[in-house]
Amino acid sequence: MRTVDGFILTPEGFVQGQLHIEQGRIARISGTPVSEYEVRHGAQALPIVLPGFVDVHVHGGGGFDTMEGGESALRMARVHVRHGTTSLLATTMTAPLDEIRSAMAALAQQVRERAPGSARVLGVHLEGPYINPGKLGAQPAFAKAATLEEVMDLHAQAPIRLITLAPELEGNLALLPQLRAAGFQVQIGHTLGSYEDGVAALQQGAEGFTHLFNAMPGLHHREPGMVGAALAHARYAEIIPDLLHVHPGAIRVALRSIPCLFCVTDSTAAAGMPDGDYRLGRHTVKKCLGGVRLPDGTLAGSTLTMDQALRNLVFQLGLEIADASQRVSTFAADFLGLDDRGRLAAGAHADVVVLDRGLQLQRVVVEGEEIDLANAG
């Protein structure tokens, strides 16, 4: 049996005590309830124990890009686990179908079996090609409307858990109920759709929005746009809290409007790497000044890691640790329909991060495995 001691965040709140792990699962949590104030400011500066982070939008890290195939997903998962991400979705880029198919075939092994020292790759987030060619952002110009046959063909290469699509493309809206019936979660993104398009997509089965505010029409009081549809109607949406993609004030608006707003990194191969040129699908992107951009200056993913996302929420936006933890762990797991990840409770996977009061990582446990943070990756 492995144990973790400290201030442990349970679904009911913090307890000062001990978390017990058996066979990769949480066996029980024992302790005495404490307030968050005591956790952050009390005389006892014990470790803070939170659920491992869940990131549903990861393109790369450590110099490796999902679309490269080979061992890129494994290397990426070993980079992000060093920053507390215990489970993730490997995210593809818009590309010709044969390139997407090849990349997904390479992902299949990592999805089937978690390699030691890595985060769990839960499946694939298919971010393209079913997006609007007029709102590509950093996506290459191979956008197209979706068909169920095509999606199922890609799904046969590696399990798709999440699909981003633009509902205004011909056929995409009508396809939504079929995608949901087939078990896929769907987000609206890379879209030029209107408020009405967003509402219709939610009614047809879409449940979230891909990197809210980015690559979609903004809010205007006479044309609420896709952002307006999200703020008015969504329960779930991704947001990139690197404080570069979205202004802190806009994040605060979303926090007040969308009950289960959750964080993603949208990280690229440049995450965890020095400034320089990196791959993002077919693009070459440059990391500099804390961001990643195309040659024309367009933001192209991020260098964010989930531990930094947590710190940004708490120290820059002023969220309570318990609230911030839900937004980097629990809500994303709930969105994917996973009740045994993203929370510290008996029976859940033993995905655990241990931090100091500055929310700097001290330990990471994935499915009961203690990660060697010094040598991982």
Automatic annotation (TrEMBL):
It is an enzyme of class 3 (hydrolase). The keyword Lyase does not apply. Keywords: Carbohydrate metabolism, Hydrolase, Metal-binding. It comes from the Bacteria. Its EC number is 3.5.1.25. InterPro entries: Amidohydro-rel (IPR006680), GlcNAc_6-P_deAcase (IPR003764), Metal-dep_hydrolase_composite (IPR011059), Metal_Hydrolase (IPR032466). Residues 48-369 form the Amidohydrolase-related domain. Belongs to the metallo-dependent hydrolases superfamily. NagA family. This is N-acetylglucosamine-6-phosphate deacetylase. It comes from Roseateles rivi. The lineage of its organism: Bacteria, Pseudomonadati, Pseudomonadota, Betaproteobacteria, Burkholderiales.
